[in-house]
Amino acid sequence: MPPAPDAITAHEGEICIDASQLRPGVHVRLPIPWIEHQFMFNSFVIADDEQARLIAAMKLPQLFCDPTRCTVPLPPSQDAASAGPDDDRGADREAERAAEKERLAALAAARMAEKQERSRVMSELRGRLDKAQQHYLGAARAVGGAIRDFARNPRESIKQVAQVSEESTAALLADPDSAIVLIAEKAHDDGHAAHSLSVMTLALLLGKQAGLPEAALRALGIGALLHDIGKLLINPAILRNSDRNRHEETIYQTHCRRGFDEAGRAGSLTAPMLDAILHHHERFDGNGFPDRQSGNAIPLAARMVAIANRFDNLVNPVDYRRAMSPSEALSTMWTREQKAFDGALLQLFVRAMGVYPPGSIVQLSDGRVGAVVGSAPGGKPLSPKVMIHAPEVPRRQSIIVDLAVDDALTIERPLRLQDRPTEELDYLLPRRKINWSYLPARA
User: Fold this and answer.
1) Which of 107, 120, 134, 338, by CA, is between 20 and 30 Å from 152?
2) How many other C-beta atoms lie within 10 A of the C-beta of residue 443?
3) Strand extents, DSSP E, 289-423
4) Cis omega (within 30 of 0) on the bond before 176?
5) In this structure, what are the phi and psi dihedrals at residue 15, rounded to the nearest 5 degrees?
6) What is the CA radius of gyration of the chain?
7) At 407, is the secondary structure helix, strand, or coil?
8) Are 194 and 141 in contact (CB under 8 A)?
């Protein structure tokens, strides 16, 4: 595979260096395809003498360096003419050089094998993500159609919704990471369906964390998918207005009761499903609507959907300028709004989502930026799987780092999607669906 044309020319701010200048702390960029060398990245700061020797042993005709990324002064070049005269130990030195060359070749081969194994693991994860994406697309079509046709044919709509809930529950139980795309891949043109799918998935994650049996999860999923069915009876202008006046707010609050009445007429929904529709805006402190229920008087399904619904509304608000990152939303719910929710369930929700929920854009300790694509293990809540933004690597071979295993890297902070450059988002979020926050079109 030949290198890309811009790989063999200096990028802005780069200079050419030679192998004699390689040492720990010096930044280097290798102008060859990522798949042809044993290092994790094409561009990196040399960590130790071993890395410097391995790069030198590659005998590349060109090496590039960005001096601003070096952590030590860049040494001057030392060509062959400046080297000291050879001594009488020529044969011994030749044998030493041959042994070192053999050692470095063996080390490079071992690291290449390790890199290929990492690539295989990445490929498997991408396969699961692709499968989850296909599940989302089918679920979005089914739910969108069911919601549109609910008033005309509620029984058929409920049947379609039940199918989506059953399939989603099975996928979640079989492979929790398969929910990643269902959570994160939000289309911005399918209205109620996108929100309903997110709330369903979030509620299912919470229900799974709470230990609900599969039948109860399926019922919870149906209630979550239909929780906003009453909004179909509300003027869209009121729904789109994030600063409703008192009269508009009164009308808005009728969507719970109207949805409950409409769904009840279908005659095939169970009490937990109807509870989720009627009471998902009740608050644990009694300040919700429509009935100002409080505490455990609020049905369990409604308490779960309330948490899922609020989270999605924080990260995907009507006014995108108010959108929060997933981490900000969790923090807001935990520190500022905790009284509104069942505290035990909210704690389970935070545990299920993780400190850095899937879809988060984060900055790593080496300065690189990535998207969280896999949940962190229970014992290491700060160490999820992260897809790295590495333009030199084809996205289908994208580098996915498991921070629970690669403990040399850590997450420094979450980043706001709106603040990231377009080319970075094109790489990490190629369809602009795998995100939590609405991203406006850029000029």
Assistant:
1) 134
2) 3
3) 361-364, 369-374, 385-388, 400-402, 411-415
4) no
5) -130, 160
6) 27
7) coil
8) no
Highest average pLDDT, of 165-179, 239-253, 374-388, 391-405, comes from 239-253
Q: Residue 84: how many CB atoms within 10 A of its CB? A: 5
Q: β-strands 43-45, 385-388: how paired?
A: unpaired
SS3 content of the chain, % helix, strand, coil (to 5): 55, 10, 35
Over range 363-375, report the average pLDDT: 89
Angle ∠(274,181,43) on CA atoms, nearest 5: 155
As given in the structure block, the two tokens for residue 437 are: 């926050």
pTM of the predicted model as reported, rounded to 2 decimal places = 0.76
Check residue 34 and give its pLDDT. Answer: 84
Residue type, 443: A
Q: Extract the tokens encoding 99.
A: 């042994």
SS3 (DSSP) at 373 = strand
Residue 259 is which amino acid?
A: G
Tell me, what's the pLDDT at 76?
92
Confidence at 121, pLDDT banded by 50, 70, 90 = confident
Asked if 361 and 370 touch (Cβ cutoff 8 Å), the reply is yes
Long-range contacts of 115-123 (CB under 8 A, 24+ apart): 115/38, 115/39, 115/40, 119/397, 121/400, 121/402, 122/397, 122/398, 122/399, 122/400
Confidence of residue 4 (pLDDT cuts 50, 70, 90): low
Confidence bin at 173 (pLDDT 50/70/90): confident
Q: In this structure, are residues 79 and 20 in contact, taking their beta carbons and an 8 Å threshold?
A: yes
For residue 421, give both structure tokens: 């450059």
Number of residues in the chain: 443
Tokens of 208: 């799974």
Q: What is the pLDDT of residue 25?
A: 96
Q: Please say whether the beta carbons of 277 and 226 come within 8 A.
A: yes
Least Cα distance to 205 among 230, 224, 226 occurs for 224
Strand 27-29 with 361-364, pairing: unpaired
Instruction: Looking at 149-211, list the stretches that DSSP marks H as alpha helix, in order from N- to C-terminal side.
Output: 154-174, 179-184, 191-209
- DSSP result, 132-158: HHHHHHHHHHHHHHHHHTTTT-HHHHH
DSSP 293-309: --GGGS-HHHHHHHHHH
Q: Copy the structure tokens of residue 218.
A: 């399926």
Q: CA-to-CA distance for 197 and 265, rounded, in angstroms? A: 23
Tell me if residue 60 falls in helix, strand or coil. coil
146-172 confidence digits (pLDDT tens): 998 998 999 999 999 999 999 988 887
